[in-house]
């Protein structure tokens, strides 16, 4: 991976390192670069590392405030009453919701939240545990500068 000048102020002192990956994974990385998703191998690895570390580290600071985006797919006849109940319990952290009908049986919902990590983690846990919720993904972003 190449060094470069670093486009972000907190990454001005880039360090060159070596990463060993399976050939098939590297081919997929190269395809993403060729299609314009990323500028270089270094950039894709930096972004992947940032996202991975942030996904792990935020749980060590649950008292901090975060923005959270929880997206989930569910079978509406099985899950909808319980989902509405949980959303009302967490009205203090839910900023808005987006609801889309995926099919006759399934819906996609997105919650945009802001609040303490404990509450964002709790609503995510509760929604993932509802029967009829088939998949759920949480993304969190610190409200702190420079995070």
Summarize the structure.
With 147 residues, the chain is of the alpha+beta class. The protein is built from four helices and four strands, in the order ααβαββαβ.
Q: Which tags fit this structure?
A:
147 residues; Alpha-Beta Plaits; 2 domains; four-stranded antiparallel beta sheet
Description:
This protein has 147 residues and is an alpha+beta fold. It folds into 2 domains: 9-58; 63-142, 2-Layer Sandwich (Alpha-Beta Plaits), CATH 3.30.70. The protein contains 4 helices and 4 strands, in the order H-H-E-H-E-E-H-E. The protein has helices at 23-34, 41-57, 76-89, 117-128; strands spanning 65-75, 94-101, 106-116, 133-142. A 4-stranded antiparallel beta sheet has the order 2-3-1-4. The chain is globular, with a radius of gyration of 19 Å.
What is this structure's SSE topology?
Layout: H1 23-34, H2 41-57, E1 65-75, H3 76-89, E2 94-101, E3 106-116, H4 117-128, E4 133-142
Strand order of the largest sheet: 2-3-1-4
| Shape annotation | globular
Report the structural category: alpha+beta
Number of strands: 4
CATH class of the largest domain: Alpha Beta
The largest pleated sheet is described as: 4 strands, antiparallel
Which regions have little confidence, pLDDT < 50, spanning 5+ residues? Answer: 1-9
* Total number of domains: 2
Overall CATH architecture of the largest domain: 2-Layer Sandwich
Q: How much of the polypeptide forms β-strand, as a percent range?
A: 25-35%
Cα Rg = 19 Å
| Count of alpha and pi helical runs | 4
CATH topology of the largest domain: Alpha-Beta Plaits
CATH H-tier superfamily of the largest domain: ACT-like. Chain A, domain 2
Residues in helix, %: 25-40%
Secondary-structure element order, N to C: HHEHEEHE
- In whole angstroms, the N-to-C terminal distance is 24 Å
Mean pLDDT: 88
């Amino acid at each position: 991976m190449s060094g470069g000048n670093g486009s972000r102020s907190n990454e001005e002192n880039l360090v060159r390192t070596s990463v060993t990956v399976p050939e098939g994974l590297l081919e997929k990385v190269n395809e993403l670069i060729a299609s314009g998703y990323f500028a270089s191998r270094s950039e894709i690895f930096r972004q992947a590392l940032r996202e991975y570390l942030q996904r792990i580290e935020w749980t060590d600071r649950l008292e901090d405030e975060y923005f959270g985006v929880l997206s989930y797919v569910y079978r509406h006849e099985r899950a909808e009453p319980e989902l509405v109940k949980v959303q009302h319990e967490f009205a203090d952290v839910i900023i808005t919701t987006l609801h889309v009908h995926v099919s006759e049986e399934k819906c996609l919902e997105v919650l945009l939240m802001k609040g303490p990590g404990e509450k964002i983690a709790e609503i995510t846990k509760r929604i993932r545990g509802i029967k009829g919720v088939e998949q759920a993904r949480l993304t969190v972003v610190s409200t702190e500068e420079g995070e």
